[in-house]
Amino acid sequence: MPLKVELVSAERQVWSGEAGFVVARTLDGELGILPGHVPLLGVLAEGFTVRITGGDAGEGVEVATHGGFLSVSDDDVTILAEIAELSSDVDVARARAALERATGAGDDAESESAAARARARLAAAGQSA
Predict the structure, then answer these.
(1) Residues 56-68, buried b or exposed e (16+ Cβ, 10 A)?
(2) How many helices (H) and strands (E) does the chain have?
(3) CA 30 to mean position of chain CA atoms
(4) In the prediction, which pLDDT does 107 show?
(5) Full-model pTM
(6) Considering only 68-72, 102-106, 117-121, which range has the smallest mean pLDDT?
(7) Cβ-proximal residues to 33 (8 Å cutoff; 6+ apart), any chain
(8) Lesser CB count within 10 Å: N end or C end of the chain?
(9) Residue closest to 81 by CA, chosen among 4, 8, 5
């Protein structure tokens, strides 16, 4: 039985469908979720991607996520992200410019968070940081 995946941000539903595998990074580490996974609730680590493969996702859907939660119950996976951006929606030039600004701004928490978001956007688009 496939996973039923819902990925939503504060602004919109980003992706919904059936999948065979979901990979996400939580504060406890990277998780791989297959059908039959034990129930869990995790906090998404900021500045990483969520990858959904198989089923309706085909070869894969890559989403840059920034904060939020991941819930697994039965074969339902719900990802509630503060911000989520599909790889196809990433403006690579803008993400690179944001990374340059953030890394040049200093070592404060806000700059580090902005750099992590930019790196995640680049990773979702298949680009190196």
Answers:
(1) ebeeebbbbbbbb
(2) 2, 8
(3) 11
(4) 82
(5) 0.90
(6) 102-106
(7) 3, 21, 22, 23, 24, 72, 77
(8) N
(9) 8
